[in-house]
Amino acid sequence: MKLSKILLPLMLAAVSTASMAADPWPNRPIKFVVGFGPGGANDLVARAVAEGVSKQLGQPVIVENKPGAGSVVGGDYVAKTTPDGYTFYAGAAGGIVTIPMLRSNMPYKQEDLVPVGMMAVSPSIIVVNADSPIQNFKDLLAKAQVKPGVTFATAGTGSTPHFVAEMLKLYAGGGIYEIIPYKSGSEGMFAVVSKQVDATSEASVVVLPQIEGGKLRPLASTWNKRITRLPNVPTTKELGYPNLFIGHWSGIFAPKGTPPEVIAKMNSAIQAALDTNALKARLIPQGIEPTPGTQADFMKFLTEERKRLLPVVKNANMKDE
After folding, report:
1. Cβ-based neighbours of 303, under 8 Å, separated by 6 or more
2. What is the model's pLDDT at position 6?
C-alpha cells in the first residue's frame, strides 16, 4: 500500500511530462521583449511583427518593454530566461553588436542570444538643412576636406549617427568632421533643421517627416538598397562607398538552449508575417523596410556587421561613456 502511494505520484508526473513534451509548440502565449520604451522604431516594428506572428502561429504574442542601458537591460533579461520557446528578444544593433564592442562588462555574452530572424530596418539617411549649399553627397565629402570641415550631430558615443560620422572619416576619404553629441537622434536632427550644425544621419522613420516637409535635404542612405518612400535618394554603396553601410535594424533572438525546431518555426512565422500586405502597409509608409530572411541570412548579416564596424570602433577609439 505504501509502495503504491509512492509510485502513483511518480507515474502521474511521468504522464504529465510526456503530455507536455507531446504538445506542439506553441500552446500558450509568446512574449517579445523590447529593449526600448514604447513608441520608438524598434517597439513599432516588434508590435507589428508580433501581431503578424500571432496570426501565423495561432497564439497571442505579447510585447513587453524593458528599456535601459541602450537596450542591454532587455537583452540581459531574455538571455537569462528559461529557453522554452516562449520568450524572445526583439533586439537591435546596440544591444547585440555595437555596445558589446564599447563595453567590457556586458552582463551577457554574444552566444547567450541566438539569432532567429531579421524583422525590418529603418535605414539611416545622411541629411543637411534644405537651405544648405551642400546639394549632394559629393558636396559633403568636398566640404569635409576644407577647414573648418563639417559639423555633424550624433546621439552620443556609439550611436548610429556617431558610427556614420566615423565611417565617413575611415571609408569615404577622411576629412574634418566635428562630432557634436546630443541626447537623442531627434535632438541632433532638429539641430540640423535649426541650422546649428551642418549634417547628421538618422533613421528614415525619424527624418522622413522633415524631408517631406521641406526642412531637410537627404544626401544618401547608408543601407544597401534604396528606400521605398525615398526612391530618388542614392545609397552610399551606389556612390562608391560599400563599407559605409549601417542601419537601424530590428531582429528576433532566443535565449541559448531554445530548441532548434522552435527557432525554425518562429523564423518561418516571421518571414510569412513580413510578406503580408497588411504588415508592409503598416511599416513602409513610415520609411521602415521589411527584411525577411532565413536564420542563416541573419547570422551572416551579424557576422559581416561586426567585421565592418569593429575597425571603426578601434580607429575612433570609441568607449562606453
Report:
1. none
2. 52
- Cβ-count burial 174-200 (b if 16+ within 10 Å, e if not): ebebebbbbeebeebbbbbbeeebbbb
**CB atoms inside a 10 Å sphere around CB 249:** 28
Residue ranges making up the domain that contains 170: 123-221
16-65 pLDDT, tens digit each: 344 445 579 999 999 999 999 998 889 999 999 999 999 999 999 999 99
Distance in angstroms (rounded) separating the CA atoms of residues 148 and 213: 29
Per DSSP, helices labelled H in 113-244 are 137-144, 160-171, 185-193, 204-212
Residues 132 and 199 in one domain: yes
The DSSP secondary-structure symbol of 137 reads H
Grid cell locating 74: 532587455
Q: Is residue 191 part of a domain?
A: yes
The H-or-E segment that residue 74 falls in is: helix 72-79
Q: Judge contact between 252 and 307, C-beta under 8 A.
A: no
Grid coordinates given for 291: 527584411
SS3 306: helix
For residue 281, the domain's CATH number is 3.40.190.150
DSSP letter string, 9-60: HHHHHHHHHHHHHHSPSPSS-EEEEESS-TTSHHHHHHHHHHHHHHHHHTS-
d(CA 34, CA 65): 5
Q: Maximum Cα–Cα distance for the chain, whole Å?
A: 94
Can you name the residues that pair with 113 across neighbouring β-strands?
Answer: 255
Cross-strand pairs, 126? 201, 220
Q: What percent of the chain has pLDDT over 70?
A: 93
